[in-house]
Amino acid sequence: MTETNFMRRAAARRVHEILEVLESFFPSSLAEEWDRIGLQVGSAAATVKRVGVALDPSPEAVRQTAGGLLVTHHPLLFHPLARLDTDTPVGATVAEAIRRRTAIVACHTNADWAAGGVNDVLAQRLGLLDVRPWEPLYPVAYRKLTVFVPESHLAAVSEAVFQAGGGVIGNYAKCSYRLRGEGTYLPRAGATPYSGRPGELSVENEVRLEVRVPAANVTAVLEAMKATHPYEEVAFDLFPTERQNPAGGRGRLGRLPKPQTLAALARWAARRRRAPAGRFVGDGATRIERLLLCGGAGAGFIDALAGRPGDALLTGDLKYHEALQARERRVPVIDLGHFATEYPFIESLAARLTASLSPLPVFVCRTDSDPFSRI
User: Domains of the chain, with CATH numbers?
Assistant: First the structure.
């Protein structure tokens, strides 16, 4: 195989491979229940030779990504379709995707809440310090399994537990703790012991095996453990564990490099994010020390900030009655618009995909712009 042919093959990926990369960036378990994320048009088995990234799906974005994979933030298919009318924006985009053999994938609220997602990028662009999730999310709950195994069956039992989904911590598999000791048991009448006889005390060389297990895998792990364990009655414990490392969270709270008045902060943030239509709710002289960020539409955080002096909400898409609510609750709000608070994520996502998929070409589609014009 020539070097040119090798590079051509290396620069092509299956859609499902790219989906796995996106899942590692933005776990689907972080998405809101009402959301529509993941593969929306095309086949996971398809081979693509380029990846386009855009805030919104459109026929033009599909044309620029022809024969590849279009990754968007906003889902194309969000509301259930009664029919696919190709004269509508959604129908036209689907038709163009089929015509151009282009797959479309959406990373929406999972990308809003994930580490390195929409709100983390926005926090970075605004220069916030000590940034943390406002509401941490732990998409995976874990249990600690402790089982006592005779040394002769340690390898078989531990391997069964691993194969059933236990023992994975981050990028490490088959993680366990093992402590050797002695176990005792006295079989009673009717028992069929692994060793020893009913009525006689048995002392066995055993290993205390401890493994972390995702809550969703507990049933499969216990079944695999019991199927390979030699004891008639398996001695084991299952403990709940504290959640320590969130995979992300709703909103981001960060500290300003130096306190500012609400009016000055709104003007500064609008210039920084190139949002000429930026506006704010509240007394412009209010001293602000921290910002709660929610790119896109984040009015749902207004009540949470009530009674927190020094904090303000920065978001987009604030409606009239939401602004009234903020004013009544005395919650300072800065509205930079939907586009200005989300578009920086698109540039960041393209850079991350480039690093993960090289030499597959990844580019930002030249289709996104703020639909509003200043009067």
Answer: 13-111+344-364 (3.40.1390.30), 115-137+249-336 (3.40.1390.30), 142-240 (3.30.70.120)
